[in-house]
Design goal:
Blueprint (H helix, E strand, L loop, with lengths): L37 E9 L15 E4 L2 E5 L3 H13 L4 E5 L9 H4 L4 H10 L3 E3 L9 H9 L21 E2 L3 E3 L9 E6 L2 E8 L16 E3 L2 H14 L4 E6 L20 H8 L6 E4 L5 E7 L5 E7 L5 E10 L11 E6 L8 H18 L2 E4 L15 H14 L6 E4 L15 E3 H7 L5 E8 H9 L2 E3 L5 E3 L3 E2 L3 E5 L9 E6 L2 E2 L5 E7 H4 L12 E8 H12 L10 E3 L4
Parallel strand pairs: 1-4, 4-5, 5-6, 9-11, 11-12, 12-14, 18-27, 24-29
Antiparallel strand pairs: 1-15, 2-3, 7-10, 8-9, 13-14, 15-16, 17-19, 18-23, 20-27, 20-28, 21-22, 24-25, 25-26
Helix pairs in contact: 3-7, 8-12
Length: 569
């Protein structure tokens, strides 16, 4: 078993599966020692798994190390093996997932509505998971099915004859229904050798701007800090003194570093971690796919870890704590933390390897179908102007798909592009490759904007922050749209010389713009699109991409030269 002598779960949830354990990769002597007055607990966390059953490919397979070159990492079977090893070193352990466990998944998971990923997490013995934004990609009803089980209401059970759902609670303390009632469990409590350990799940308060409007209809998302403090007070009232937060909000590294570095840009996660109630003892973060291991002081001046484990199963975050048996409090001075890279130089877990093999085999007929070819890698790497070769290609594909609806230009958001389109031996692109690039199957819509609204839309790529800086999110333009941007100008006045098909845009003329439905509904802050008129459907983004590849193969990476930059003063 996992080392926990006994455990009671809130909401009468069933016990997770145990795991066989092997010799660990880190020295067990590094953990806090346990005596008659304390209970030592190893807290493990992963984040942003995104249904990655196979080892990731390309740039997102790499994990940087300060002591050598970056290394390939990840893969569910290796991840499970590392979790087992890390648990083997500890008498007691708990395993958490910090949101986006599924959603935006490769085809071997997504084709089966991510049921293989839930089965993976059950096999690994996850104790609790916070809800991320992508768990809501298919709406609240599907989230509830993933928790409680049952076959898909339209397609049934295609991976296995039945689906039992997650054997762990999906948590969010700040997601409510329209009437204010909780939409999920706010916390869970596990008993470790008789001592309670509470865990709180928290979503980003701006979740509606990151999720399709239809998927969050009827849901509300409150302030993260308020939810943490309120829920920690509840746990404290119930006698739970050891408290962990799974915060699906993250920061990014200011400079590249190893998995245990802590050089972060200013961001929401660190602010929340420093301001949250001192009752919280450890904070695992997510969403930004970064790797870091930080220690921050709580409002009482006591240190606590704040960590993130990259993404796609490439790292496991580890926090070892010692809990006083009588008071239930964590001895912060004895807390130790590290990030463990999931390398490929250990034996993969055989049960998980079998699960991955079955999911891959069952999806192969669809995934391996050739849809086109490329002459070279087509990547998401942005230019100084913010566009990318792959973004431009996708915008071109969407414009071609929407020409029949009168589209004159297309724009797509970089967040909807989830992987590079990579060249292999013969350049063939399979449906699985294309699916990995655009896994959301977002509907395409065409809206009419005036020239003035088009300029306003492009200006919304820069959104002012309270500190006077500007958040930047550049949309990929089709070849029919060109313009100049000037980052020196004030927010709201950075876009000039807009041209469609080479002609200057007239503020009073009308233009037909193709975008995915996420953007059409105002996602990522592009609210002007909600005011577009004469809406028309134009298929899906994935169909547009595969049709374009089929019609134009072999496709060369387009030159990302549609956005020019004003020269420096």
């Amino acid at each position: 078993m996992s080392g926990r002598r006994w455990r009671r779960r809130t909401a009468a949830l069933a016990s997770v599966l145990g795991a066989s354990l092997t010799v660990g990769v880190h020295s067990a002597a590094a953990r806090p020692s346990e005596d008659a007055d304390t209970v030592s607990v190893r807290l493990l966390a992963i984040n942003d798994l995104h249904g990655s059953l196979q080892p990731p490919k390309g740039a997102r397979a790499q994990v940087s190390r300060p002591d050598g070159p970056a290394t390939d990492a990840g893969g569910a079977a290796y991840l499970a093996a590392y979790v087992q090893q890390l648990r083997a070193q500890a008498k007691n352990s708990l395993l958490y997932s910090v949101g986006d466990s599924w959603g935006s998944s490769p085809i071997e998971s997504a084709l089966f509505h991510d049921e293989p990923t839930v089965n993976l997490l059950n096999l690994m013995g996850v104790d609790a998971a916070s809800i991320g934004t992508h768990e809501l990609d298919d709406g609240f009803g599907e989230l509830r099915r993933m928790q409680s089980g049952g076959c898909h209401p339209v397609e049934g059970c295609q991976f296995e004859p039945t689906f039992d759902g997650a054997r762990f609670p999906l948590l969010s303390a700040n997601m409510t229904l329209a009437d204010g009632a909780p939409a999920a469990l706010p916390y869970a409590v596990d008993y470790v050798d008789g001592v309670p350990v509470g865990v709180i799940g928290v979503m980003p308060s701006d979740a509606p701007s990151k999720i399709a409007a239809d998927s969050v209809a009827g849901l509300q998302f409150g302030d993260e800090l308020e939810a943490i403090d309120r829920t920690a007070d509840t746990l404290d009232f119930l006698g739970v003194r050891a408290i962990v937060v799974l915060l699906h909000r993250g920061d990014t590294q200011a400079t590249p570093g190893g998995p245990n570095s802590c050089d972060l840009s200013e961001g929401p996660a660190r602010e929340i971690a420093t301001r949250a109630t001192p009752k919280v003892d450890a904070i695992f973060t997510a969403d930004t796919h970064s790797q870091f291991n930080c220690t921050v002081d709580d409002p009482a001046g006591n240190p606590r870890p704040m960590m993130q484990a990259a993404s796609h199963g490439r790292i496991v975050s580890v926090v070892d704590v010692a809990i006083d048996r009588r008071s239930g409090e964590v001895d912060r001075d004895r807390t130790q933390a590290f990030n463990q890279i999931v390398t490929h130089d250990i034996s993969p877990d055989p049960m998980v390897a079998d699960l991955v093999s079955r999911a891959s085999r069952q999806s192969d007929e669809v995934a391996q179908r050739a849809v086109g070819a490329v002459t070279d890698d087509i990547t998401r790497e942005p230019t100084p102007g913010g566009e990318s070769p792959l973004g431009d290609l996708i915008a071109d594909a969407q414009l071609e798909a929407a020409r029949g609806r009168g589209a004159q230009l297309a724009l797509t958001n970089p967040g909807g592009i989830r992987a590079d389109l990579l060249f292999d031996a013969d350049g063939t692109i399979t449906y699985g490759n294309a699916y990995q690039v655009q896994p959301f199957l977002n509907p395409l819509e065409v809206r009419t904007l005036t020239g003035a609204q088009l300029k306003e839309l492009l200006e919304q790529q820069f959104q002012a922050r309270e500190d006077g800086s500007a958040a930047e999110l550049i949309l990929a333009p089709s070849a029919s749209l060109t313009y100049r941007l000037d980052r020196r100008a004030p927010v709201g006045s950075r876009i000039a010389d807009i041209r469609v098909e080479g002609e200057p845009v007239d503020p009073t003329d009308s233009y037909r713009v193709a975008v995915n439905k996420f953007l059409a509904d105002g996602g990522d802050g592009f609210t002007v699109l909600r005011d577009g008129t004469e809406p028309a459907s134009a298929g899906s983004d994935l169909d547009a991409l595969t049709s374009y590849l089929d019609a134009h193969s072999p496709v060369a990476p387009p030159a990302p030269d549609r956005i020019s930059i004003a020269p420096p003063a």
